[in-house]
Write a structure and sequence with these properties.
The protein folds into three domains: about 260 residues, Spore Coat Polysaccharide Biosynthesis Protein SpsA, Chain A, CATH 3.90.550; about 80 residues, no CATH class; about 100 residues, Sandwich (Jelly Rolls), CATH 2.60.120. The chain is built from eleven helices and 28 strands. The strands form six sheets. Strands 18-19-20-27-22-25 form a six-stranded antiparallel β-sheet, with no helix packed on it. The protein has a five-stranded mixed barrel with strand order 5-8-6-7-11.
Length: about 475
């Protein structure tokens, strides 16, 4: 009887903010939660690449603020969600995943990948993964090197070395190269030995931890303390804050890959892109006869090689070439496609000027659904609220505002102090200042309502929670 090959543990890193894809991607709702390369959100698309008989349920390491977004988008996949109390780059995140993976056995092969990359050739990806997993079981830490299709300056490069004996398709790594200028990138592509650094890694938990112990023992000790002090809540693993925050912020490339003697690379052509900018998304998207990519209600007249996306407002572009135009409900980005890497500078400038649009959308997501601001005036505010079937808001009160709720569609059960009130479409309820209240959607369809707030202070921090299904303070 042949022994079954151990399953691979997908580890998805979902801590990025995707600044260069502003105004769509923002800290509150970054690019991995948006459908960009397909009709699926990027996180769900990433998880779908690692499903089937050869894989364990995924482990996702994410920002604590995004935990319910991750849980919702990976519903039904059995995902284990590890919550970082603070961002500390990739090495501490991977260390935490490796320590938790050891629970399934120290020889567990981890496939570590970002939540926000695109892959178009899945058979080629899985073939490369088979080669990488074999090398990982032989003690290697393997990265995937993407065969360049252009002299890209936005990626780091790997210079591939000699083939490794007994490991088909796997090569040693001669060296890592930082993002080059255009001339050097052209040399790399012409030479044929350099590959794009994809940021995907395959290794066993035991080998990764041994190398972290060798090169970054203080960092590993901090993360070990965070894992040992973690709280487990349903599918969430909440890393202990104090030891994790004490860990240095360092990438896995600097912590291990550029120092270890066990590094290896699998060269691959899998239609990969990190979608790190609007120009990168234009590159991989289907285009019209004029080389344009349009998403949403967009009209183009004599435009060439443009990327235009609108999230709702009719957007017209006339006579532009090589332009990027992105329109959301509260912001517009317009630029030459060659300046795509400079969006980050714009976001930093918006932050410096105190513009909340730099980091927040008008629509705010919560574990029970979402809300969006419609009108904000002096002493009043109007919001549209949507509550998922079976979900409920916290039991709460406010010190500075009263609220009116009007149901647009669906059914609501409202608790108001000692009362319990059922509301249907076109019915309303008044919640006076200071009353203890809660709303629940008992139905099978989303509950949509309009909320009118009136009071001296309308901030989201004017909430006293008495009870919450989702463990929020």
């Amino acid at each position: 009887m042949t022994q079954k090959t151990p399953q691979i543990l997908p580890v998805i890193l979902s801590g990025g903010t995707g600044t260069r894809l502003w105004p769509l991607s923002r800290e509150g709702y970054p690019k991995q939660f948006w459908p960009l390369a397909s009709d699926q959100p990027m996180l769900a698309e990433t998880a779908a690449r690692a499903e089937g008989p050869g894989f364990l349920p995924p482990m996702v390491v994410c920002n604590e603020a995004h935990r319910f977004l991750v849980a919702e988008q990976l519903r039904g996949r059995g995902a284990r969600i590890v919550l970082e109390p603070a961002g500390r780059n990739s090495a501490p995140a991977i260390a935490a995943a490796a320590l938790l993976a050891e629970e399934a056995g120290p020889g567990t092969v981890m496939w570590i990948m970002a939540a926000d990359s695109a892959v178009t050739d899945l058979p080629a990806l899985h073939a490369a993964l088979d080669q990488a997993a074999a090398a990982a079981r032989a003690g290697r830490i393997v990265t995937f090197g993407m065969k360049p299709t252009a002299p890209e300056t936005g990626y780091g490069y790997i210079e591939a070395g000699d083939a490794l004996s007994g490991l088909p398709g796997v090569q040693a790594i001669a060296r890592f190269v930082e993002k080059p200028d255009a001339a050097r990138a052209a040399e790399f592509v012409a030479g044929g030995r350099h590959l794009w650094n994809s940021g995907m890694f395959v290794a066993t938990a035991s080998v990764l931890l041994a190398e972290l112990e060798r090169y970054e023992p203080a960092m590993l000790a901090s993360v070990r303390g965070a894992v040992e002090g973690a709280q487990r809540d349903m599918d969430f693993v909440r890393l202990a804050a104090e030891p994790f925050v004490a860990a240095p912020s360092i990438s896995i490339d600097y912590a291990v890959m550029e120092r270890t003697q066990h590094a290896a690379v699998v060269p691959a052509s899998i239609g990969w892109s990190d979608i790190g900018s609007w120009a990168a998304l234009w590159e991989i998207s289907g285009k019209d006869a004029g080389g344009n990519v349009s998403v949403g209600p967009v009209e183009l007249v004599e435009a060439k090689n443009c990327f235009v996306r609108s999230e709702g407002i009719v957007t017209g572009v006339v006579g532009l070439e090589d332009a990027v135009v992105v329109v959301t409900d509260d912001a517009v980005l317009a630029m030459h496609r060659d300046r795509a890497q400079d969006v980050k500078k714009l976001v930093e400038q918006l932050k410096a000027h105190g513009r909340k649009e730099a980091t927040e959308h008008r629509r705010a997501y919560r574990p029970w659904g979402h809300y969006e601001g419609l009108i904000l005036g002096q002493r009043f505010q109007v919001k549209k609220i949507q509550v998922r079937p079976g979900a409920k808001l916290s039991l709460q009160k406010h010190f500075h505002r009263a609220e009116h709720w009007v149901v647009v569609s669906g059914t609501a059960i409202v608790r108001r102090d000692a009362e319990e009130i059922m509301l249907r479409e076109n019915e309303s309820v008044y919640l006076p200042l200071g009353c203890v209240h809660r709303m629940e959607n008992p139905g099978m369809i989303p509950l949509v309502l309009i909320e009118v707030q009136v009071g001296s202070y309308l901030g989201e921090d004017d909430i006293v929670r008495f009870e919450d299904t989702y463990g929020r303070a």
